[in-house]
Design goal:
With about 280 residues, this protein is of the alpha/beta class. It contains 9 helices and 11 strands. It has one domain: Protocatechuate 4,5-dioxygenase, Chain B, CATH 3.40.830. A hairpin with a 7-residue loop joins strand 10 and strand 11. The longest helix is centred in the middle third of the chain and has 16 residues. The radius of gyration is 17 Å and the shape is globular. GO terms for molecular function: ferrous iron binding; oxidoreductase activity, acting on single donors with incorporation of molecular oxygen, incorporation of two atoms of oxygen.
């Protein structure tokens, strides 16, 4: 049967992809951020996952404000990173995993989640930057990826509890899949940041660190925060914590934290990185 081996959290801001493209990871501005990833890369090299279930949000590339599903999942054999206008060189396509993807979709519908199933799907930095961070040199082609996209742009947005429960249902699907696969789960985005308006540049480090503490073995305590609370406490883009909660829902009740890193500011963002091993 398929096995869930762990979860990883990471920022996915497009400036990271540009830093990689320009080869400036060792400059003073970027080095404290990129220094958080070698331990995770080492773990991935040892565990050799077959599949990544990747929670992310689309930034107006595949889904714009006129059509914004709450939850959508890709079932395509391949995903192309479309041009976002950041001056970043084209990177290789992402390999999909169709069989497990369809199994997850069937399970979610049975569990009464209304999802949008995408047999074709353009992806942006929300999905590609995490892969570039984990497999330097764009060496992610051997990994099969299942994109799980959560609406974090257009109100109304799902609650932290709903996203956590989405993860629980995905876990049920993975653990009932009758192939021997090692699956790792990525929760991307965040943490606190606001990119526009009167509070542009807002970062709430105490709130970020509290969320990182709770996500380990007390994720249910975060259910108390509504989407409005997240906007107030973590900025307009703070609801990206939903992707972390989706990831955490896929893991078992107790996990072991193997590594974490937190650095601010990176492109006006509180960037948190964690490695959680499933028990």
């Amino acid at each position: 049967m398929a096995k869930i081996i762990g979860g990883i959290t990471t920022s996915h801001i497009p400036a990271i992809g540009r830093a990689i493209s320009l080869n400036i990871e060792e400059t003073p501005y970027w080095k404290p951020f990129f220094d958080g990833y070698p331990p995770i890369r080492k773990w991935l090299g040892e565990k050799k996952p077959d599949v990544v279930v990747l929670f992310y949000n689309d930034h107006g590339l595949e889904f714009f404000l006129n059509k914004k599903p709450t939850f959508s999942i890709g079932v395509a054999p391949q995903y192309i990173s479309a041009d976002e206008g950041w001056g970043i060189a084209t990177i290789p396509p992402v390999t999909g995993e169709t069989e497990l993807s369809w199994h997850i979709c069937n399970t979610l519908v049975e569990d009464e989640f209304d999802i949008t199933i995408c047999q074709e799907m353009k992806v942006d930095h929300g999905l590609t930057v995490p892969l570039q961070l984990m497999w330097p040199g764009n060496t992610y082609g051997h990994i099969k990826v299942i994109p799980v996209c959560i609406n974090c742009e257009q109100h109304p947005m799902p609650s932290l509890k709903r996203c956590f429960n989405l993860g629980r249902s995905i876990a049920k699907a993975i653990e009932s899949f009758d192939k021997d696969l090692n699956v790792v789960v990525f929760g991307t985005g965040g943490l606190s940041h606001q990119l526009d308006g009167q509070r542009a540049g807002f970062i709430n480090k105490p709130f970020d660190l509290m969320c990182m503490d709770k996500i380990v073995n007390q994720p249910e305590e975060l259910f108390q925060y509504s989407v409005r609370d997240l906007v107030e406490q973590a900025g307009a883009q703070g609801p990206e914590l939903n992707m972390w909660m989706g990831m955490r829902g896929v893991l078992s009740g107790k996990v072991t934290e193997l590594h974490r890193n937190y650095h601010i500011p990176i492109s006006n963002t509180g960037a948190g990185t964690m490695l959680l091993e499933n028990n």
